[in-house]
Amino acid sequence: MEFETLVQSRRSVRGFKNEQVSRAVIEAIIDSAKRAPSSMNTQPWHVHVLTGGPLEEVRRRNMEEMVGGAKVKRDIISHGEYQGVHRTRQVDIAKQLFSAMGIARDDKPMRQDWVLRGFRQFDAPVSLVLTYDRVLDPGAVCHFDLGALCYGIVLAAWDRGLGSVINGQGIMRSDIVREVANIPEDEVIMTCVAMGYPDDNFAANAVRSEREGNDDFVRYVGFAD
């Protein structure tokens, strides 16, 4: 698939088929994605691929802790709640998703169910937990590198017929993820990518988030035209 077509067609997938993903396919995805840009070729990233029993344990315990009122325990520093235009964009995509799923504004049980799906990583059969070397903190450069790897993963997956959603909700309790996946303390858990074969009958999978027009966030400097 040509790159432009690949980027334009890719979307976040929040409903997956009950179908396993082979290790060979994941290896091929990572093999492509690891060519992502890396500052001075430092390659600060690590990928921990979970499936089966370990993933189910992470799902269950993460959901139980969050539903039980436990505090978020992420390795990375959070910005807190979004405000202003960022909050508006967050609300807009939620409205699109709820509309597609037929979830009414006052339907608290269904809205809660949607939140729980996020805590369960949308029941995807595979989760790729992305970490970076703690020795590189503080600093945004390694975060940038990991973001590049992450996007490479989701594009390489889409090219192979797999959908994914970058899902911080699924690792709200990073201590649980670290314990179950045996992730070393010298690695910082940044995010995870829930992955599987898309369920085309799941309405939310057809949702495409809106993007601002180029004029709203792009400046051209020095061009004659």
Automatic annotation (TrEMBL):
<feature type="domain" description="Nitroreductase">
    <location>
        <begin position="8"/>
        <end position="197"/>
    </location>
</feature>
<protein>
    <submittedName>
        <fullName>Nitroreductase</fullName>
    </submittedName>
</protein>
<comment type="similarity">
    <text>Belongs to the nitroreductase family.</text>
</comment>
<dbReference type="InterPro" id="IPR000415">
    <property type="entry name" value="Nitroreductase-like"/>
</dbReference>
<dbReference type="InterPro" id="IPR029479">
    <property type="entry name" value="Nitroreductase"/>
</dbReference>
<dbReference type="GO" id="GO:0016491">
    <property type="term" value="F:oxidoreductase activity"/>
</dbReference>
<dbReference type="Pfam" id="PF00881">
    <property type="entry name" value="Nitroreductase"/>
</dbReference>
<keyword id="KW-0560">Oxidoreductase</keyword>
